[in-house]
Specification:
Layout lengths: L2 H38 L1 H8 L4 H6 L8 H10 L2 H17 L1 H5 L2 H6 L5 H34 L8 H28 L3 H24 L17 H5 L5 H25 L5
Helix pairs in contact: 1-4, 1-5, 1-8, 5-8, 5-9, 5-10, 8-9, 8-12, 9-10, 9-12
């Protein structure tokens, strides 16, 4: 890793990190502000939920609104959060390597005393830093909103809310890892974006299909999205540490592969 390059890359991408982080925190805060109204009309809402097909409820994690944890998991972490962070992880991974190669900026970087391994390792740390900033803002916004906007008895426990965000961070470290791998393989940022975005869409679709059609729920074993179940984490029914170890391993292995491939491959410099 190179400190000067890391500092420059963080300055370049900080607005993007803060933008996604603020949007994520604002959405959690907005949903939290709606919970007291939902809680007051819980019986009518539960009756309305019973009208929806079970498959649809499983797909969006809307099987219960019995607590704030279940509510925020269904309204944000089970759907919009996955879409927002999925887009972020693919975009930033492509920008960190493939875009620099495609636009010729990588030639200037490698003409200095910074090695290819240092460049690639620094970009991995920038990706991880961006994910940490976004999740810190989301966790902080959600926790403070829950503390000030809803009654203490209804709030989610600190530990469960932290675990929802921590496992989510590791999920998108894994998504960012294989996206960075495609980014290190491609000379064209459009091709890198198509491969990384396409695989992320396929993984997300496999997870949704497995939830909707119980006869093919085995398909979820082949996607990292199946390891992230915020509703079960909120109700203490998830194996958090097994999921965390697997997702962290996927992220580390794919990032190491990205660094090694970037070191060896021929670049159009």
């Amino acid at each position: 890793m190179n400190g000067s390059l890391y500092s420059q890359m963080m300055k370049t991408h900080l607005k993007l990190f803060l933008g996604f982080g603020v949007v994520s925190a604002a959405y959690v805060t907005l949903m939290t502000s709606l919970y007291p109204m939902m809680d007051e009309n819980m019986e009518q809402i539960e009756n309305l939920i019973d009208l929806f097909p079970d498959a649809l409820l499983r797909a969006i994690g809307l099987e219960s609104f019995s607590s704030y944890g279940q509510f925020i998991s269904a309204e944000y972490y089970g759907l919009f959060y996955l879409l927002i962070l999925g887009v972020f992880s693919v975009i930033i991974a492509v920008q960190l390597i493939a875009r620099l190669v495609d636009r010729g900026s990588m030639a200037y970087l490698l003409s200095t005393h910074v090695s290819r391994v240092q460049v690639a390792t620094t970009q991995v740390m920038v990706l991880l830093s961006g994910l940490i900033i976004i999740h810190a803002l989301t966790f902080g916004g959600g926790f403070l909103a829950a503390e000030f906007l809803i009654e203490t008895d209804s709030t989610i426990a600190f530990n469960e809310f932290f675990q929802i965000n921590f496992v989510g961070l590791l999920l998108f470290f894994a998504v960012g890892g294989y996206s960075l791998l495609f980014s290190s393989l491609m000379n064209d940022e459009k091709n890198a974006f198509a491969l990384a975005g396409g695989l992320t869409f396929v993984f997300y679709g496999m997870d949704m299909m497995g939830k909707i059609v119980t006869e093919i729920d085995w398909i979820r074993h082949f996607t990292p999205f199946s390891l992230y179940e915020p509703g079960k984490i909120a109700s203490n029914d998830a194996d958090v540490w097994t999921s965390s170890v697997i997702l962290a391993a996927i992220g580390v292995v794919t990032c190491i592969a990205a660094v090694l491939i970037f070191r060896k491959r021929n670049l159009p410099l």
